Amino acid sequence: MRLKLPALSSLRAFDAASRAMNFTRAADELGMTQAAVSWQIRQLEERLGVRLFARDGSRLALTASGARLAQRTQRAFDQLYEGLQELQEATTLRISATQTLADWLVNRLPAFRNQHPTVLISLESTPQLRDLRGADAADLALRGGRGGWAGVEATKLIPALHTPMLSPALLARAGPLNEPSDLLNYELFRDEECWVPWFRAAGMAGCEPRYVPTDYFTQSHLATAAMAGQGVALLNPILFRCELSDGRLIRPFDITIESDMAYWFVHAPERRNEPAIVALRAFLEAEIAGANGSAAAA
Fold first, then answer.
1. Domains of the chain in sequence order
2. Nearest Cα to Cα of residue 98 among 123, 127, 122
3. 3-state helix, strand, coil in the chain (%, to 5)
């Protein structure tokens, strides 16, 4: 029959007293009174039916039973503290993200690691929202959509902004873009749900643009094709700030529209206050605030 363990508080009091060989110093270590330490140890002795300490005048000594128990409690608490320290030193966050958001996040992970070296990131790209509660669940997800997913908590990170972008090589090859109407001389990547309202915002409602005869279904693929000079893409300036700043993409006009979609930071509600999740969410919100400011100023 398995022995029922004594109260952990009694074992902690005994461990501290056995190392200090002084109830007062043990009380200081534990943030307790000397009387409370003495009471905890008396409760432990009564629970076990053995004496653990003996007094010789003003001196405190372990009995033979106390010495045997002290060896084990010290080893057990040392292992427990080591395990807790390991958890604090290295936390792995498993992140499920769409391809576009995974590519965007990868470029920002070095800066995050500099700020939080004990948080390790495991990133996978998946098209569907993964289970965030099962045994093999991801810790959080980065997803595009309208939000409102059942059973999870979603924080809006990035608005769905759209503005034309293209490569410097295509601009040099196909001619100047001084006015939005100059886009009619270019081939555009087909995204009529966004091009139609963008042309309306540019004062060109009803125009008939030419589209590239290839469809791409993610912002990441569109950006890659645009950087290769294959056409003009409607892209989110927040997601592609790095490509704009280093000149791989050009944003010829400051006309930007916003759709009702967005990009979201998603996790189980009960995990909202976990330190690693809080740290990553705060880092991404600060990163996006800076990128959004740059996009508005452009």
1. 8-88 (1.10.10.10), 90-298 (3.40.190.290)
2. 127
3. 45, 20, 30
Dump pLDDT digits (tens) for 239-269.
999 999 999 999 999 999 999 899 999 999 9
Q: How many Cα atoms within 13 Å fall on the side-chain side of residue 42?
A: 7
CB atoms within 10 A of CB 122: 11
Question: 146: Cβ–Cβ under 8 A, 6 or more apart, which residues?
Answer: 260, 261, 262
pTM score: 0.67
User: Which residues sit opposite 164 in a β-bridge?
Assistant: 234
Residue with tokens 């810790």: 139
C-alpha to C-alpha distance for 269 and 150, rounded to whole angstroms: 11
Block residue for tokens 């039973």: 65
Rg (alpha carbons) of the chain, rounded to whole number = 31
**How far is the first Cα of the chain from the last one, in angstroms, to the nearest whole number?**
73
